[in-house]
Specification:
The chain has 157 residues and is of the alpha+beta class. The protein is built from three helices and nine strands. Strands 4-3-6-1-2-5 form a six-stranded antiparallel beta sheet. Strands 7-9-8 form a three-stranded antiparallel beta sheet. A hairpin with a 2-residue loop joins β1 and β2. It starts with 20 loop residues before the first strand and ends with a strand.
Length: 157
């Protein structure tokens, strides 16, 4: 009889898709007032080893007693030992996350969403920016580049 190892590549359990997997906060990096990056490490070693995502995807972070929030993954898909999520503290869930400390745990489901079309960017110069479509910043970027490849990033050259 052979033993097979199940590789877990997602924090979504097919039989219980709404149940989060738990991750411990490994590091908190303050980016700006009201914004921090939380470096999470899955408590399940099989999930930590097999988890995969692509640029542009997000996870649902769960705070029991407060709710859930969709947060973009802000780390490299090349190293999934720790997953980074940069959080702006603006609501009930994100303000609860702001009170967590290294060693605390948060629930994670994902990844969700369509990834950025990175194959189109290979060999090209890229200008990446973040903006709110309701501000003039977005209009300036559209005018300056005249070619928007995908929201939040514009191809130059």
């Amino acid at each position: 009889m052979s033993v097979q190892t199940l590789q877990i590549t997602s924090a979504i359990t097919p039989t219980q898709p709404m149940a989060p997997h738990w991750a411990e906060i490994d590091e908190i990096q303050i980016e700006a007032p009201g914004v921090s990056t939380y470096w999470l490490r899955f408590t399940n070693p099989a999930l930590r080893e097999g988890y995969t995502f692509s640029p542009g995807q997000f996870n649902i972070l769960t705070m029991p007693g407060y709710g859930e929030s969709a947060i973009s993954i802000s780390s490299s898909p090349e190293n999934t030992e720790r997953i980074g999520h940069t959080v702006r503290f603006v609501g009930n869930v994100t303000n609860a996350i702001s009170r967590l400390k290294v060693g605390d745990q948060v629930g994670v489901r994902g990844p969700f969403g369509t990834s950025w079309p990175m194959e189109f960017a290979k060999g090209q110069d890229i200008f990446v920016t973040a903006y709110n479509d309701d501000t003039d910043d977005g209009k300036i970027i559209y005018t300056a580049t005249d070619r928007v490849v995908f929201p939040g990033a514009s191809m130059l050259g």
